[in-house]
């Protein structure tokens, strides 16, 4: 099967006529081909997006909303097909794709399609001499670069607000997981999205991604991916004064106080550590536990982690599938070796499973791995692994755990488990991260600001922040 670009309302071949192999991570085998796009394809897409902008941006909000709602309905109608495609493409359990990724993609569309029917802009009265109002106008052609861990979810997280607020866009899905974006192109066509409003160009980051960030007619870049890539994107965009939002990695702390509900915190923190094989930027990979319950917590956490069912992603009861790529598997193995060298004790996992099934014999599987006895400042506890690896570290008091939590260059998310609410609020203030969850994890309300501090990100998306990002505020001052 060939995955082609979606440009100017049509599925088209790449200018190069070349395709890249697309591998199914659970089997390690090539199962489709994806367009090997380049700057010429980006130019075609930008021309289409520019031509579509005038009409799309002037279309009444209700009309834009109607088309985006239709896209959401078609995602729901094709949810089974999309979930299966995402599971094959990404290696994640089909149950996760069904319950999280695909429904959330539809929600992203609905959220912003309805938001534009309700948003308002500001007015300011200046001492009886003037009345100011803020005109929020779409910014033009946006570049939307998304990663492989939640392919359709994160693509639509950018596409929905960009289009809802009247922009047109060039989206670039990860070359590692292009399939759901391809199916999404078909959905956009079937929903009657006018040609050129959204264009999807596939291919390598160094070619297509770089061409998008460097394109002078693309005014706005929303990027989610690794911090190293984010730095490249920022470097290219800075001299051109593009508006940029970067959502990058994390090394998120889970903080467990002795008064937390043990049952709930074990379930919650295991899920936080190993969801999607730890390949979610929000995963809690460093677990800090108050010393008085450390031994019991460690025992229960390791037991729960080793009970996770690792298996063929297409089996309905699989809880942990394959990692997305050989590179990601090797990165995980590298860090587990490093943990051993740094003096870590592996309580469970630390290797690939012996057998998953015949079909998945050559897949990129790795067991959920729990490590103790590592110092807070060692590399394993500071650098992002993005695999099914959690470390557990004891702490003595509030001040110490805040210091531990903040001891990385990242600052995306944290979760704090305690019954002591004043303490939870104190910690929330002091932890350097874009999100702090208290007694929960991965609860996502699409109205709240989303993004990271430090090397986890720049700018915020979500809710009103998305409106601010994807529109240009113009002050109109009327003398009275
Ligand atoms: O992501 P890349 P990679 C982290 C995770 C992972 C590491 C590297 O730790 O191990 O990053 O992953 C496009 N200009 N996260 O290398 O390359 C690329 O094609 C413009 C965390 O696989 O950052 C893809 O579409 N774009 C993260 C997107 O950037 C470029 C999710 C992200 O891929 C480009 C993924 C360039 N020069 C990885 N080079 C999260 N925050 O959730 C690549 N791209």
In the CATH hierarchy, what is the class of the largest domain?
Answer: Alpha Beta
- Given the structure, what is the number of helices? 15
Q: CATH fold name of the largest domain, please?
A: Aldehyde Dehydrogenase, Chain A, domain 1
How many β-strands, per DSSP? 23
User: Which structural category fits the helices and strands?
Assistant: alpha/beta
N- and C-termini, Cα separation: 64 Å
Name the CATH superfamily classification of the largest domain.
Answer: Aldehyde Dehydrogenase, Chain A, domain 1
The outline comes out as globular
Order of strands across the main sheet: 15-16-17-14-13-19-20
The radius of gyration over CA amounts to: 23 Å
Instruction: Give the low-confidence spans.
Output: none
- Average pLDDT, all residues: 97
Roughly what fraction of the amino acids lie in strands? 15-25%
Provide the domain count.
2
Helix content: 40-55%
Oligomer: single chain
Bound molecules: ligand TXE
The CATH architecture term of the largest domain is 3-Layer(aba) Sandwich
Characterize the biggest β-sheet. 7 strands, mixed
